[in-house]
Amino acid sequence: xxxxxxxxxxxxxxxxxxxxxxxxxxxxxxxxxxxxxxxxxxxxxxxxxxxxxxxxxxxxxxxxxxxxxxxxxxxxxxxxxxxxxxxxxxxxxxxxxxxxxxxxxxxxxxxxxxxxxxxxxxxxxxxxxxxxxxxxxxxxxxxxxxxxxxxxxxxxxxxxxxxxxxxxxxxxxxxxxxxxxxxxxxxxxxxxxxxxxxxxxxxxxxxxxxxxxxxxxxxxxxxxxxxxxxxxxxxxxxxxxxxxxxxxxxxxxxxxxxxxxxxxxxxxxxxxxxxxxxxxxxxxxxxxxxxxxxxxxxxxxxxxxxxxxxxxxxxxxxxxxxxxxxxxxxxxxxxxxxxxxxxxxxxxxxxxxxxxxxxxxxxxxxxxxxxxxxxxxxxxxxxxxxxxxxxxxxxxxxxxxxxxxxxxxxxxxxxxxxxxxxxxxxxxxxxxxxxxxxxxxxxxxxxxxxxxxxxxxxxxxxxxxxxxxxxxxxxxxxxxxxxxxxxxxxxxxxxxxxxxxxxxxxxxxxxxxxxxxxxxxxxxxxxxxxxxxxxxxxxx
Length: 540
Prior knowledge:
α2 crosses α7 (195-210) and α10 (317-327) packs across α11 (339-356). The protein is α/β, with parallel strands linked by helices. It is built from 18 helices and 20 strands. The chain has helices at 33-39, 65-71, 82-95, 119-123, 145-151, 179-187, 195-210, 224-235, 254-271, 317-327, 339-356, 376-382, 397-407, 409-412, 418-423, 441-450, 470-477, 479-484; strands at 2-10, 19-25, 28-32, 45-48, 53-56, 58-63, 102-107, 131-135, 140-143, 176-178, 214-222, 242-248, 276-284, 331-336, 364-367, 385-388, 428-430, 505-508, 525-530, 533-537. α12 (376-382) links the parallel β15 (364-367) and β16 (385-388).
């Protein structure tokens, strides 16, 4: 069975001429233009593009799809005021009296001064059951008093390793918990979400992504229960898109983790579902600037945490762990926000290369929010892929209320140097960090090409010397994410439009290269194809 796409524009790549017809046979790209029309048989389905645009489907180089799917099952607290978030929790609690715990996300941290939220505000909505809400950075939670009580957190509880418990003036815990060392105090006493609910969450996430033209996602924080969930879904043949799992490396227990990671990789491979792999290990080098846990070379302007938090410490622990994981054949994926964390991540990767010798390893540094000028060239030199989130490169409330005051103007204006990274010769892939922020590539594309808010501020774009062209960001969202995923080395290569490649395609209503930045988010996704199968259609 084949498909003939015609009457539109086919983007073949940045160095290839566009085509105007495309033939897909048995899930693979076969031919273009006149050859495609000539080879099309009588049983070929013809798709009239109606002047639309086809390209290799989008990918998401760094996200949390399982978390995003689970978030949709709880109260929706991405609101414009704290009162609206509290009201949403109350409505949800009233509608679900059977739930012993209430989980939700992901609230806007900029709504409260310094991102500090009080448990007593949630107590007004629910006081008899624990409530746990993730902030939009997913490094912070807001809980009610019942959750603090069940976790045993009181005025005498010290800050845990890799975490912080803010307090009120009277010494009692406020209700905001920062970073996973503190978050785990609550989550360790919370019940696990049932496996069927978690499998349903993968389906919700898949539907979300496919409707936005995305067919591969890097799940960038996977723990053992998550592996169970993905394996079960894959075993039941329930996956409708590609996932790669990045197994979370925890410095508190890494000595026991490596063999478990190897076993998890083998277990995923044994399922034999080509849509699921587990070839990556995820490290956190630091936290986030909004919490002042992002690791900086120079102190924060407010000085609350001075230089921030190095998750693996300032010694050799991160480098040692990266070297061991690299020796086991895993791809390295390091969260690094601050310039000190980026340098530490680059140093660790450089050490692994020196120790383990050359191979096609494609290490990833995710976010790279602030990179010291001396380190920009090292991405290309070391073959490090910079997976950056273009949607964050704008002067929104998160930036103006929480980030800029902490960094100061000079450092703030050196954030998200996507053009500089690309011009250095490094591979620049794009990710969303969904559900931290929107997983829609069209929205990220608009910011990458304008560096403006949706209201068009500032005129000319923030730090306009870092702008990308629309074609460059299309490339980063498709082929470069596929390179990060080793899609070119798959049994059937994907991520490109070339003869023999898997027909992983997105059909847009219009050519985005001819649209204004403001119009990019509104370019309708008409259909998404995976291996030549239409997994999403706007008409169904």
